[in-house]
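Predicting holo structure, adenosine-5'-diphosphate bound.
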Amino acid sequence: MPATRSVYVCQQCGASSPRWSGQCASCEAWNTLVETVVSRAANAGANAGARSARARERAASAGSAAISPIGGVSSAEASRLPSGIGELDRVLGGGLVPGSIVLFGGDPGIGKSTLLLQLAGRLAAAGHATLYLTGEESASQVRGRAERVGAVVDGVGLVASTDLATAVGAIEASAPALAVVDSVQTFASAELGGPAGSVGQVREVATRLAEVAKAGATCVALIGHVTKEGTVAGPRTLEHLVDAVIYLEGERMGTTRLLRAAKNRYGSTDEVGVMEMRSDGLVEVADASRFFLESDQPPVAGSAITIALEGTRPLAVEIQALVAPAGYGSPRRATTGIDVNRVLMLIAVLARHAGLNLTGHDVYVNVAGGLRIEEPAADLAVATALASSLRERPVREGTVLAGELSLSGRLRPAARAERRMAEAARLGFDRMVTGPERGSSGARPPAGQLVAAADLRDALREALVKD
Ligand SMILES: Nc1ncnc2c1ncn2[C@@H]1O[C@H](COP(=O)(O)OP(=O)(O)O)[C@@H](O)[C@H]1O
Ligand SMILES: [Mg+2]
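Done. C-alpha cells:
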C-alpha cells in the first residue's frame, strides 16, 4: 500500500473528495477541485477535509512540540547569506535567508535561469555549495550557459530531472546553501496524476520544497514562469506557499532588467534592483539613477525628468510624451511603463485646469529605460511632458518635477522632496518644481532649489521655457 494517496481539495472551501468533479459537493463552487497529496499518517490524524500541508503539519506536531526559549533562536538577520549580487541583495532585504523558499517569477526568456545560475556560481565561488536542478533544459544546455556567465565553478552541482522526489532527495542528501529548481512548472510528483505544470502539481512541488527548505538550512530558489494571466502558475497558487516572491521584469527586446519583490517575509517590498542583460549574463548597473536618463543633452519638447522614489532609492527617470493631431475616429492613447488610466486622468486635468485640450490629439507616453512607475508623484512630470509636447516648448534646463496632481488641478508635494532634490543635485539638476510645502523635516535643500507651485498652471509656468 502506498504511503501517500491523493484527494481532490476544493480551493475555495477546503473540502476534499476522493474523486474529481466539476462542482464542489460542499460549497457548490465550480472548477475548484485540485488534486492534492495526503500522507497516510496525516490522514489518520486529521480529518479528510484538511488541506495537505496543514494536515501534514498537524500530523507532525501531534506528538510533542519542541519549545525553544526565544533568546535561543537565531534570527534570520544573523544568518543571512549575501548573494554576491548587490542588486539582488537589495531586493531580498540583505541576502538569502537559510531555510527559506523564494519564488523567482518572470516571462519566459527574461533571464531567470541566467540570474539563478550566476547566483549559484557566485555562492559556490564564495565557498557555499549550491545545487542546480534543471527540469527544463538538459545538463549540457545548463553547462553551456554556465560557461557564458562564468558559473563553471567547483561547488555547483547539477541535477537534470523532472521528478520531485529526485529533487527532494538530492537536496536532502547534499544540503546545499542554495538549491535552484528550474522550473516549478516542469517538476512533478509521481504521487499525483496530473501533468507537470497543473495547479495541483505546482502546489505540491512548492509545498514539498518549502518543507525541505524549512527542515534544513538550504535556501530554495524556485523559478516560475508567468502565465498568460500575468501570475506565476495561476492566481495566488504559489505566493502564499513561499517566503518571498521576486519578479524579474523588463522589455524582452531591451536590456534593462528590474528585480522587484511582490512579497517578502524578510524585508521590504519597495526596493527595486536594476540589472542589464549582456552576453555574459546579468550585470549590476553601477549608477542606476543615471542609467534611466536617456541622454545628458539639453531637454527637448515632450520630455520631462522626475525623481521617482522606488523604495528608499531615488531614481531619475525621463518621461517622454508625444502629442500629435489625430486622424479619423477616436484618438489613440498608449503608454509604456505607466498606467494608461492615470494618463487619461492627467489629460483631463490638463484640459480643465491648464486650458490644454488634447481631445483632437493622439497621445503617447513612455517611461524611458523600461522602468515602470507607480507612484503618483510622477504626475507632474507626465503632465509637463504632455504640455511640453503640445506647446513645443522644452522644460527649462536643470529642472526636474515631482508632485501629485489632484482632480482639482492642485499640486501636492512629493513625499521626501529633500531626498529627491539631493539626488537631482547629484545628477546636475539645480531645481525641482513640486507642490507647496506641508511642513518638512530633515535637511533642507538650499533656498531656490525647491520651487513650490500651488497648481498645475503655476507649475507649468515654472517648468517650461518662456517664449
Ligand atoms: N548566447 C547568448 N548571448 C547573449 N545573450 C543570450 C545568449 N543566450 C541567451 N541570451 C539571453 O538570455 C535570455 C534568456 O535567458 P534565460 O535565463 O534562459 O531566461 P528564462 O530562464 O527567464 O526563460 C535571452 O532572452 C537572451 O537575452
Ligand atoms: Mg529558463
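Confidence is low (pLDDT under 50) at residues 40-51.
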